[in-house]
Amino acid sequence: MGQTQQTENNEVIDVKALQDMYKKFVMECPSGLLFLHEFKRFFGVDSTGEASEYAENMFRVFDRNGDNTIDFLEFVAALNLVFRGDLEHKLRWSFKVYDKDSNGYVDREELRSIIDSIYRIKKTTKSDVSDSHLTVDEVVDRLLQAVDSDGDGHINLEEFIRGAQQDPWVLNMLKLDMNPASWVLEQRRKSAHF
Asked: Fewer CB within 10 Å: N-end or C-end of the chain?
């Protein structure tokens, strides 16, 4: 069995798995930093393909210090969230993906951009697009109506979390973002890099 260590939060970390992950990271990123183009290549995302914008948004959120690179600690933190995070943490992460300009609100254009990316990815991967009879704009309108509780045309973090937790349709529409683990695993499966 691998060597384990407990954290302050009583979580068990498999030291061997972490060492293996580091070795793979350093093999792919000898500089110790993962740049956007490498991130896309890492997950087999074509730079002009349907998943490109989604990958860019994921990269931006994983890059916690905003230096346009992902170092090993940011990488591990991202994978931990993706694979082990609870619903609220994934919703918080999702909100950051939607909030492209990081102003604390998701406006109509940001919402439309991500929903459009989700539709295009699901169409390309032939995944189920629930309510695919709705246009992107109709989905955006319905999401704003369901989630924007104060009617200001923006969705703040609290509205985003509460709306997704209370409305199964909203949660379902956010599923691709809500379950980044599926996306990451699918991209890793398609790519031989990791």
From this structure: N
How confident is the model over 18-28, as pLDDT tens digits?
Answer: 788 788 888 87
Average pLDDT over all residues of the chain:
78
The sign of the CA dihedral 29, 31, 36, 37 is negative
> Residue 48: helix, strand or coil by DSSP?
coil
Q: Where are the alpha helices (DSSP H) in the chain?
A: 15-28, 36-42, 52-62, 72-84, 87-98, 108-124, 136-147, 157-166, 168-173, 175-178, 180-190
Amino acid symbol at 102: S
Tell me the two tokens of residue 146. Answer: 């369901």
Q: How many residues does the chain have?
A: 194
Kindly list the distances between the CA atom of residue 135 and the CA atoms of 5, 106, 117, 130, 131, in Å, as whole numbers in the listed order: 49, 19, 13, 11, 9
The amino acid at 116: D
Look at residue 182 and tell me whether its pLDDT is greater than 90: no
Look at residue 42 and tell me whether its pLDDT is greater than 80: no
Helix (H, G, I), strand (E, B) or coil at 103: coil
Specify whether the CB–CB gap between 27 and 168 falls below 8 A: no
pLDDT of res. 105 = 95
Gap between the Cα atoms of 81 and 87, Å rounded: 10
Q: Of 184, 149, 181, whose CA–CA distance to 167 is shortest?
A: 149
